[in-house]
Amino acid sequence: ERAAESAEYWRAAPQLFSEVDANVERDAREAYAKLAADQASLLLHHGYAAEAEEAFRAAAAISPESGDAVFRYVTMLADQKRFDDALRIAEAAEKAAAAASEEAAS
User: Fold this and answer.
1) Engineering a disulfide at 40: which of 15, 52, 82, 95 sits with its beta carbon 3.0 to 4.6 angstroms away?
2) b/e per residue, 34-56, with b = 16+ CB within 10 A?
3) What is the pTM of this model?
């Protein structure tokens, strides 16, 4: 039951960031994404793969350029032999990181 509650929380979390000022600091997004990824790893370790995926998905949505969150998400997908999904997430993260880099430079 608690795993389901956690998944529900992380499912709603990206909306919190979409409703606030678009200029929320990158560091804040990165920290929140790391928190989601940490909880996802804990869920995965305890056998709650579906709930872990929800939290990893939230982490990637909150901060798509977060290397740590994306790495763990892609690793989970690859371990499940979901290579197309893993590649899609990694490519999206690469594009987000490039966009964030361009934005920071301007």
Assistant:
1) 52
2) bbbbebbbebbeeebeebbbbbb
3) 0.74
Give the tokens for residue 97: 């990181």
pLDDT value, residue 85:
96
> For 90, what's the count of Cα atoms within 13 Å in the CB-facing half-sphere?
13
Counting Cα atoms < 13 Å in the Cβ hemisphere of 3 gives 15
SS3 content of the chain, % helix, strand, coil (to 5): 85, 0, 15
- CB 90, CB 74: distance < 8 Å: yes
Nearest to 11 by CA among 75, 49, 51, 58: 58
31-53 residue pLDDT tens: 888 999 999 999 999 999 999 99
Res 102: pLDDT: 77
With a CB cutoff of 8 Å and minimum separation 6, the contacts of 103 are none
What is residue 38's predicted lDDT score, i.e. its pLDDT? 95
Name the residue among 8, 13, 7 with its Cα closest to residue 44: 7
